[in-house]
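Blinded run. Sample ID left blank on purpose so nobody reads anything into the name before looking at the predicted structure. Input follows.
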Amino acid sequence: MAHKGAGQADKDWVGAAAPPGAEQIGRRRPKGRQQVGVEGETLAVAALREQGMQILAQNWRCTIGEIDIVALDVVSGRRTLVFCEVKCRTGLGFGSPLEAITHAKVRKLRQLSAHWLHTESVQADAIRLDAIGVLLLSGRQPTLTHVRGIG
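Blinded prediction complete.
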């Protein structure tokens, strides 16, 4: 699958049906904020795997914060490490999930990715910061929006 330009939404996932297994997740109503986040990350991981990425880490933590997903995207032999922020919401009252990713959050994700690279021994040709917004509206299938190259 060809990569989109920096900051471009991956049109294959914008408003697309969620990946396999999403039907069950979308029907259960989350009980709290943490459960919403877990369900959003589960859907995001499934979407990345369906795009052919290998998940290297989930909820990786260190003293300065947490990375939601670290994945390896191999296209035409080129290995790209993908550090992914996932935002999930159950409504649009406070805007879309991706609107919650501020410049400060992107800056923090850069710091965290540098720390991850320093502590892990993974070889790659490039790194990329992505964001996945997950919208879980009651009675509807989950909607995922994947934006590549957010910063």
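Unblinding after everyone has recorded impressions. Residues 1-17, 22-30 have pLDDT under 50 and may be disordered.
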